[in-house]
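In this notation, each integer encodes one residue's backbone shape. One such record reads:

___
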Amino acid sequence: MSTQKLVIKNKEKSELELTSFSDLEIEVEDDCSLVLKLANFENAENLKITANLGYNSSFDVVFADFSDSNISVKTQVNLNKEGANCRWHLATLSSHENHKKFDISFTHHVGHTYALMDNYGVAKEKSNIVFTGVNHILEGAKGSETIQNAKIIVFDEESGGTASPVLRIDENDVKASHGAVVGQLNEDHMFYLMSRGLNKEEARALITLGYLQPISRQFSEKTQEKILNLIQEAM
């Protein structure tokens, strides 16, 4: 697989949406920012994303995975200079016995850096989702903050979800937190919707739509429409 290289420099503030992409190597240089919107609809089984962030740089990733295939995504973000910050938001839907794995790592090499990781998934029809996240604050990276959240909704007993958040903290003067939830649809929510006249399938579809659709708002109108159609088809 070929590698796409993106370099943001000269104090550029860039926003990029990709619906077809391969491995990515990204450099966000000093005082630059990149908002990267990735919508994966294809049958790409293995993807690697590497990013290096400079002084006072900003790197925001919005990753919407609605491919009907197995997929493995490995991401490494290096916060190399003070003031670097990264925000990662992922939503994925897995069905038809597919297996999806997302392995995401943030490394704080210096102090006064910030990273946020949010991973959300829905698994149904004997499929499986695995979220593995590692937030590492190295010794000497004082004043850094790192946050990791993961949530997977499992539709049926034959589907599975695993969320494995890891914090590696080698410095005392930092802020670090993580949370992970894996479970079936909230029975109270289901009961409320069904008491209002929806059948079970309609209630499940509505909850899933509300869970996954918000990420689509970050994309262009054409991509939003495709994401919505794929969610509705899967339900």
